[in-house]
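Continuing from the previous page of notes. For each protein in this section, the sequence appears first, followed by its structure tokens. Read the first protein now.
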Amino acid sequence: MSEPPSVSDPDADLRNVLDRMADGFFAVDADWRITYANDRATEILRGAMADDDAAVEGAHLWEAIPEATDTEFYDRYHQAMRTQEPASFDAYYRPLDTWFDVRAFPSESGLSIHLRDITERRELERQRQRNLHAIQRLYAVSSDGDRSFEAKLEEIFELGCEYLDLPNGFLTRIENGTQHIEASRATHSALEQGEACPLEEAYCKRTVELDRLLTVVDAANEGWEGEPAYERFGLGTYIGGRVEIDAELYGTLCFADTDARGESFSDLQKTFVELLTRWVSYELERERARAQLQHERDRFEEFASVVSHDLRNPLNTAVGHLELLAEESDSERIDPVQRSLARMETLIEDLLTLARDGVRVEELETVDLAETARDGWSTAETAAAELTVELDRTRIRADESRLRQLLENLFRNAVDHGGSDVAVRVGRLDAASGFFVEDDGPGIPEDERDQVFETGYTTSDEGTGFGLSIVEEIAAAHDWTVTVGESGSGGARFEVDGVEFVADGDEFGGE
């Protein structure tokens, strides 16, 4: 970097040029006395001097500005003078609350110093970092599957209040013309959890009428004085948006302060609040769906228990009497009755399985797929059907009992639709992480394939309509997907994808 011309005795033209500079420029001699300062440097130095009426030129730099002796400026200027090497650095001068970009050029006669105020640039950088940090924290909170919605919401309030520099964050539920504070992080007593007020007296009345955020930065100067909401809450600053569940109004998510803000919310801050309202809407939708699903499952399980109890006792009685009758008679009507009773027993078992066990898997272990397929075949009532397993010590991660149940149901489905002499084949998918079960039966028409996994759907007089639904439930519980298509021989082909295979050499059996 070239050394600028000496300005220890500048001529009028050079002073003219330097004084017009937007940045500060000054020079000191070898004894640290200021020999020249342009207009901007004079402004900066005088603002930093202990005596702001003293002359700048001719003053001793460190005596005039004693607070600078324990700063980076002092150290770097001295180093540049000592080594005769230029110095370049950014530093914050606390007494002026200003960041400077500094360039110091040494010479034998002293030091020439260029100062540029970069406070605004540093503030923008700091704000970018704050924005990035806020988004990263929001992602970390929203994607944390181990925390409850309530715990996430508490951290969302903390994050929002910190990012927006507002002390109150709260979630409202609006029902029958009343605003209820469902959750909050608040210093304002009227915004604490459990508080309620008529919607007509709340800031949120205007919020829910908009299709965008409502922002208030100085309520007193924005026409809020005299409004019921201002009289009740006295909020000077407010930002909030609608929270919806399934496109219907739930309430609002808001941040506020009793003091006026003094400056508008930035576009990034408004976008951040919009993200929060959408996240809360999504989480509330999930909570409602989860609660509804659990309620339905509880009712289904209760129904299944009642049905199984009320049906099983008379069914067992009927089976017992039929066995006695079969010993006494060889009537051709006994076999159809036996088949009907057996189907009722299967129906009850499938109903209970679907209600209680379909979506649950125990701890995963390493399982031999071929061995499990053969074991399932032996207990699936496959009559004279034929099984071919085209797997060579293929091991996967699965709940062994649920995997066996999945395979049994697929085998039973093949026999129910393909007859007692159907041929079934099990193998590994070529281009995916999974396996298939296919048969040479009549197959499933293409326009029916989307329905086969629906609970209760069956095209067989012998089927219960639960078998394939259970298959899909078990697959989903493993994070697998199951699809149906056509085998090479025109039969049905079920493909299970997303399976984790265990490579040769890994430990076999268990974790």
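Done with the first. The second protein uses the same format. Note its length before scrolling.
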Amino acid sequence: MSDTASTRAIRNTPDRPLAAAPDLLSSLAPLLAAWVPRQRWFAGKGRLITGFSLVSATELLPCTADGTPGILQLLVRAQQAAPPNRATVAGDCYQLLLGVHPALPPQLAPAVIGRPAGGPLRGRSVYDALLDNRLCGLLLERLRVPGRIGALRFDREEGLDIPSGLPARPIATEQSNSSIVYGDSFILKVFRRIAPGINPDLELPRALADAKCARVPAPVAWFEAEAAEADGEPTTLGVLQPYLPGSADGWQLALNALSVRADFTSSARALGHATAEVHTALAQTLPTTELHRPQLAAIAARMTGRLEATARAVPLLQPYCPRLREAFDALAGIGGDGRGWAAQRIHGDLHLGQTLRSADEGRWSLIDFEGEPARPLVERRRPQPALRDVAAMLRSFDYAARSGPGGGDPWSLEWARRTRDAYCQGYAEAGGLDPRSAPELMRAYETDKAVYEVLYEARHRPDWLPVPMAAIRRLAAGA
């Protein structure tokens, strides 16, 4: 979809005078240019913002000057300087939920974006509304009642109760999105980087709920921007799901086990069971396909392209490229005997941090089905081999072993080997294809994931770069 079509597909007709003010964005732009690049969810790190264009504006709560706060929802496209070797680049679209207050209380000082010098919000404080517990509470009230504001639509599952007045608290540790917990009942994920279409984090959990799969919390309510075309899909902006209090995420559980040198194989085996159950339910509920040599060759070509682009951005990777390409060449060749590989909808970004284990039953759940946010939405919604998720989880066990208390010492690496094997065993026992029976597929997907990790760490957490580079060396050696 072209940039113009993308904008048209999620365009919203303003329904209040403030949202329609022609100088609204121009008055906010200097403040946003300083604030947006500092946010964890901003994807354009390292490139100068040259301007913004307004995709939509909606007053969710009137922004009056009478002393009460308002909420302004914006979709803006950030125009940026093109990276090296590219003449142009399409700007990413971001969702901003801005609080507007005549006199901001001191406790909200960390949320301040600034005071516009002109325009319809002149002299008023503009701040991140998702750091204001009161405004977050009002957002939940809006989700309780299906309906429209302008071209924004709020919807919910029938027969599910959303109590009023639940206390709101933002989750401080954020990555590509923002989340708010309401009491001990619900969690709202607000998507920040927006692409036209249904987000997999709404689509897949709803499909799993239809399949009666209890491994994934089912969506309760959501909001979206309606498509401009009659046959177009709405654009998902936020999803409310049950909160699982008392559950611990798999990443922290793994690090805890490593810190006391405890075995983790039984937990990994049970997690393999849970993953296979989710994959089976997705395959039963959503369309599947079969990949043959041309499709596998195309997947391998995209992997090779990502490898070459990453090597240009991270020269440390370059010496390993010839051997890493061998994994992708092997993937391209496995369809030569006419055999096909099943492809289906998958999680798309599975790792220990996307899993929760209940404290009472020790039952695993999978969360966050958005997929890798850096990849295009159309790619994230494409059927893929289920073993791609398995390979990603194996990388996560390796990450834990190398970044935990042992720091990749021999005991930690043996912990990773045994844990990876137990996860594969559990996956096969629960009806999934035994990952160990598809070495070419597994090596290609694990290599592709390690290359992704190299680029991510180089951009966001350089101190962590040795972790994926250790995997690169292992995979290049054919291990």
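What the second structure shows: The two ends are 40 Å apart (CA to CA). The chain has two domains: 3-242, 248-476. We return to this in next week's lecture.
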